[in-house]
Amino acid sequence: MKQGILSQILDYSNRANPYPLYEELRRTPVFHDGEGPYVVSTYHEIHGLLHDPRLSSDTRNRGAAAGDPLAGQEEGEQQLPPSFLKLDPPEHDRLRRMTNRPFGPPHSPRRIDGMRGELGSIVKGLIDGLADGRSRSGEGDGNGIDLVDQFSYPFPVTVICRLLGVPREDEARFHVWADTLAASLDPDPDADAEQREKATSSARMELGMYLAGLIEERRKNPGDDMLSQLAAGHGQGETMSTMELLSTAALLLIAGHETTVNLITNGMLTLLRHPDVLERLRREPQLAVPLVEELLRYEPPVQLLPQRTPLCDIEVCGVTIPKGAPMWLVLAAGNRDPKRFENPDRFDPDRRDIQHLGLGSGIHSCFGAPLARLEAQLALSELARRLHNPRLLEDPPPYRQNAVLRGPRHLVVACDDIRP
Questions:
Q1: In whole angstroms, what is the distance from residue 389 CA to residue 403 CA?
Q2: Quick one: where's region Disordered (predicted)?
């Protein structure tokens, strides 16, 4: 194992294809180079740790993270209390339980499926916009459509706005805040760090003030949206404070947005590289369901979880990981572990038993998984149906700097026509 394997994984020059590095990493299932994080990269070990109550998601339980290159990456969120994503039971369970009541089963079983028609309308409108843009520019192969800026980015933000109950006239403001906060997760070595931090802080404050006002309005005049139900609470001991509500709403916005953007964009890139599967999806839209599951294995939107800490000394594959040590669980490496998946580097939407790690597992499995899956299924099947002869204009495309939330920053394609 090379000493610099973690540096190579974080190196932008390897962003387009980190999988050979993950293969190298799996040769040492628990890698530690003397300082920094303990890195776990094999499927069965990651899956077991995601279900292990001895592992904490609360960084306050972490000791000195000397040498951890991802330590302190989210310090800018200190204005709000930690979201349940970064808490352990029982606080995690209380907040997640309250958030889940208006979001999905068993209390709101039709919340997501009931949005299917609205999601389809949003997708249709965005693709219509692509067609209008082509008509105005008369573009051919020399230009192209940026599926990230024109589709993958605006789609999830609009969905989150509708879910939370943001008034339509305020959605444009929400998009600006979401874009600024998303940019803060993607370090830009060429940007002015001070200006960037100023813009991020301003967006975070404006969003917080807006949401606080919306929460108070929903407490007085509740609707059938998710924010109204969260603000209403559910009996004694089951009410979120305003700060907890703000933290939860921010989590839904950022986590829900980033995961879905990457899932859709990685999905289209993979389909464009596998034109036979793309054509099959156009003819068989029902293929979208297993296809998205294979995408979550093959090109997961979240590559690794860098915030795990043992609450006591634990042993994994013969290696003792001490209490308080930083740990990384490399989901994308586990998803291509040949000890778990046959021909793991092959994209196969007919693959059976796709028990992937793409949305995590255990108590911290992706809260928005049902929504992300439905968004990706509708988006990819409709893009496949309506884009006639789509093709990449740049492969590999330029990627985002972020090694954790991995996906193309732009995905420029040309097509002969956009079907109605």
A1: 31
A2: 52-90, 96-115
Report the C-alpha gap between 319 and 61 in whole angstroms.
20
pTM score of the predicted model? 0.91
C-alpha distances in Å from residue 384, one per residue of 113, 169, 171, 283, 288: 22, 31, 27, 9, 10
Helix (H, G, I), strand (E, B) or coil at 287: helix
Q: Which residue has the higher pLDDT, 310 or 65?
A: 310
The contacts found for 288-293 with CB under 8 angstroms, 24 or more apart, are 288/376, 288/377, 288/378, 288/380, 288/381, 289/377, 290/349, 290/350, 290/351, 290/354, 291/267, 291/349, 291/380, 292/263, 292/267, 292/373, 292/376, 292/377, 292/380, 293/354, 293/356
pLDDT per residue as tens digits for the range 255-287 = 788 899 999 999 999 999 999 999 999 999 999
Rg over alpha carbons for the chain, rounded to the nearest Å, is 21
- Structural domain total, the chain: 1
**Helix (H), strand (E), coil (C) string for 133-174:** HHHHHCCCCCCCEEHHHHHHCHHHHHHHHHHHCCCHHHHHHH
CATH number at residue 131: 1.10.630.10
Cis peptide before 154 (omega within 30 of 0): no
Residue 187 clears pLDDT 80, i.e. is over it: no
Calpha distance 66→11 (Å, rounded): 19
Alpha-carbon gap, residue 398 to 168, rounded angstroms: 33
Rounded distance, CA 97 to CA 108, Å? 12
How do residues 134-164 score in pLDDT, each as one tens digit? 655 555 444 799 999 999 999 999 999 999 8
For the chain, how many residues are written? Answer: 420
Cβ proximity of 150 and 126 under 8 Å: yes
Residues of the domain holding 35:
5-418
Token pair in block for residue 360: 């995590």
Tell me the per-residue pLDDT of 171-180, one tens digit each, with 9 for 90 and over. 888 888 888 8
Cα 256–Cα 258–Cα 263 angle in degrees, nearest 5: 95
Specify the higher pLDDT residue, 240 or 187: 240
